[in-house]
Design brief:
alpha+beta; three-stranded mixed sheet; 137 residues
């Protein structure tokens, strides 16, 4: 009987951490944002939570994700994208893309100091909703 109570308590705790958004998964991670690379070039990308500042910032770009040619990456965030974007950056998401070949030839300090972004995309929550959170480039 004690084990059953513990299991129920654990389930209730897990549900309490969920986003409450029907598009989030069971544990509360928002898995809606998908980034599709339709090009024949491999990329790295990172997000910026600095809007309206569009320059590269060291501490916010510590994680860079690979995005191979003709692939899609699911960018998962702990609940919820709308809340995060409204809290940090006026409801805007900035994605910066770097061609893998060029990126790997440069030091991050050089890329950051010279703002060597190959492609920068900026989306509002409204735009992301209208695209069903699928970004193609």
């Amino acid at each position: 009987m004690n084990v059953v109570k513990q299991i129920l308590l654990l389930i209730l705790l897990m549900l309490s951490f969920s986003c409450g958004n029907e598009r989030s998964n069971f544990l509360g991670f928002d898995t809606r944002l998908k980034i599709m690379n339709n090009q024949s070039v491999d990329y790295y990308y990172c997000t910026s939570f600095t809007y309206p500042n569009l320059e590269l910032v060291d501490n916010l770009y510590s994680t860079r994700y690979t995005l191979p040619s003709m692939s899609t990456d699911i960018y998962t965030h702990q609940c919820c994208w709308e809340e995060l974007l409204m809290e940090c950056c006026s409801g805007y998401l900035i994605l910066d893309f770097f061609e893998k070949e060029k990126y790997e030839k440069q030091k991050w300090e050089t890329i950051k100091n010279q703002n060597l972004i190959d492609t920068q995309l900026i989306f509002s929550v409204k735009q992301l909703d209208s695209m069903d959170w699928l970004i193609k480039f």
